[in-house]
Design goal:
about 40% strand; 3 helices; mainly beta; Jelly Rolls; OB fold (Dihydrolipoamide Acetyltransferase, E2P)
């Protein structure tokens, strides 16, 4: 009888232990003091004031709403957290079960506040140890921004950009390289020609989805890489871009960077050594492009082409071009040409070029900036083309030509 009682007691004890359940999401019983709670903005200011990695060993906490999770594969072991003061990238020690809209508390003890390629991060966060799930289903309203409004201060924030479209040169294309699982950058623009790129991981479940070809809005997280702004898409459903495309600016070249051949422009020197360069002579507030074959005592034989990068008019119905120009001294007229069979390298005379008819400066003594007028390029709609400014001069004559503010619209 005694032996039976002992076994019975052991059985009841085991049964009682096996029926206990761990309350995973129950917050600690202690009440936090206000001094133990940090806002996201204060976290960011802390890291910026120190300027390096901060290993947090105090019993501090931060609260916020998850604005982007890793569900669709576009980010991994990461989330973005936002409160009423700011936003921050959170890096976890392993993949998490957090989803967008979760309200969470992060215990900061044992975590690291750091910066990577310009992005302030709360690093080394263990979901099991540091994260307390409070509630779900909270919708964070994205802040409406224009491309030109976005600054580095918006890093990690949830935003919405309206009236944007992907560049013609990006279409048709997919968000990323899903086959090789390579990340890709795809550039969007607004109707004023302002641009920014959206970066998508090759592991995202929408990486192989085709880009929308219309104009509309996109909801993204703002990020950066070494000071260069970029956007991260949360969901392909948040790229609502099915409206009519704006004309947009395909190319703007104003030489303000004091570089003739930046942004894909090239010089093809056929004859002589006199070539295109930048200048601010005459008190110009910003640089412009200029060429002359005068050597100080006479003229040199010269043929020099300033050629644009390849321009994609495949989705354009009425592309056009404009620029300003001025000249002095006697010599051949500057030619403005367009080609759909130039390869982009080598002697441009081997290609077929069509002459455009811009309004050119005709006063050879005043350096008067003259508007070219809108040059119709609709004959090249559906094609890829190059635009060229061709300068020629002989050993007996030659003008000095100046050009600026080249705009090519789609």
């Amino acid at each position: 009888m005694r032996r039976y009682s002992v076994l019975y007691i052991v059985f009841l004890t085991v049964l009682g232990l096996s029926s206990c359940k761990k309350e995973l999401d129950t917050p600690p019983p202690n009440v936090l003091n206000s001094s133990d709670i940090l806002t996201i903005d204060s976290l960011r200011n802390w890291q910026q004031s120190v300027g390096g990695a901060i290993s947090i060993q105090d019993s501090l906490s931060v609260f916020g709403i998850v604005t982007m999770d890793e569900t669709n594969g576009n980010i991994y072991k990461n989330a973005y957290l936002q409160d009423h003061t700011g936003a921050i990238n959170v890096r976890f020690t392993s993949s998490t079960d957090l989803v967008e809209g979760d309200s969470i508390r992060i215990s900061l003890y044992g975590t690291v506040l750091n910066e990577f390629s310009g992005v302030i991060q709360l690093d080394s966060v263990d979901e099991e140890i540091n994260v307390i799930h409070r509630s779900s289903g909270h919708s964070m309203t994205p802040e409406i921004k224009t491309i030109s409004d976005i600054t580095l201060d918006d890093e990690s924030h949830l935003i919405k950009i309206e009236n944007v479209q992907f560049l013609n040169s990006e279409l048709p294309n997919t968000w990323a390289d899903a086959v090789n699982q390579f990340a890709q950058n795809r550039t969007i623009e607004d109707c004023d020609g302002n641009q920014m790129y959206i970066r998508t991981s090759g592991f995202a479940d929408f990486a192989g989805t085709e880009l929308p070809e219309g104009n509309g809005s996109v909801v993204c997280i703002v990020s950066e890489y070494n000071g260069e702004l970029q956007l991260i898409l949360r969901s392909v459903e948040e790229a609502q871009m099915s409206g009519d495309r704006c004309a947009g600016q395909i190319l703007v070249k104003n030489f303000d960077d004091d570089n003739v051949i930046s942004e894909g422009w090239t010089i093809q020197q056929v004859t002589g050594t006199d070539t295109w360069e930048t200048s601010s002579a005459g008190g110009a507030p910003t640089p412009y492009a200029v060429i002359s074959n005068w050597n100080g005592s006479g003229n040199n034989e010269c043929e020099s082409w300033l050629i644009s990068p390849e321009l994609d008019f495949s989705l354009s119905t009425s592309p056009s071009m404009s620029f300003v120009n001025a000249y002095n001294y006697g010599g051949p007229v500057l030619e403005v040409l367009v080609s759909s069979d130039y390869t982009g390298t080598g002697d441009p005379n081997a290609a077929t070029w069509t002459a455009l008819s811009p309004t050119l400066d005709t006063n050879a003594s005043t350096w008067e900036w003259t508007e070219s007028g809108s040059l119709d390029l609709s004959a090249f709609a559906g094609s890829t083309v190059f635009i060229a400014f061709k300068y020629t001069g002989s050993s007996s004559d030659g003008s000095t030509w100046e050009i600026d503010d080249i705009e090519i619209n789609g």
